[in-house]
Give the backbone structure.
Amino acid sequence: MKRIAIAISFVLISLLAISQNAVIKQVSPGQFQQLIKNPKGILLDVRTHSEYGNGHIANSGQLNYYALDFRKRLLLLPKSDPIFLYCNTGYRSQKAAEILAENGHQNVYNLEHGIMDWELKNLPVVVDPGARPDTDNKMGFSEYAKLIQSKELVFIDFYAPWCGPCRKMMPMMDSLKVEYQNRINIVKVNVDASKSLVKELKLVGVPFLAVYKSGKLLYSKNGAVSRSELTGVFLSNLAKD
């Protein structure tokens, strides 16, 4: 009986996932720009107030995904209207879209790779008067180009303050910087503070990790990584010196 119950549960979960995928439409920046012209649609930015102020799509509302009452307020949106969601990379807006789909919304659109991809396509954003741009760990393209030409190993951690996986890896990154000091130059780059560099490199997601030496890319990964994987990369490349 337990096996039957588990099998039924698995089928129901699978059907729910298929249903949600049918309701949620993943769209490109160009498609999103056309869709949000619908006067009946609701355009919603689910980032923090600070992120929103430093660059958002015109006429979008703002609701912080990390707020305790986010779900409650999100579900106040009318089910009769199309909902257009975005965040920085598409992760938070996808989670918001899933909440809406689970609760009966049938017309939900997600900007698949977020406003990072939107800006990469040179589409317009609005910056609020008085917005205070993030400047921590800022890097420009010329500084980056010089950095990666170093004859020593350079490990670059592209992160964002709002990125959950980035925040989880921060203690590990800090400990690695101590462990490999004088052997590997470990550098953090804040993508929110380094938008021109992000655009030059065409980055559409964080965390993004890269190892360089003498201008050559030796390793790269888009997404979270374990300590064992990173130390393996470090040690294998140090052994070549």
The longest strand covers residues 153-159. Residues 2-23 form the longest helix (22 residues).
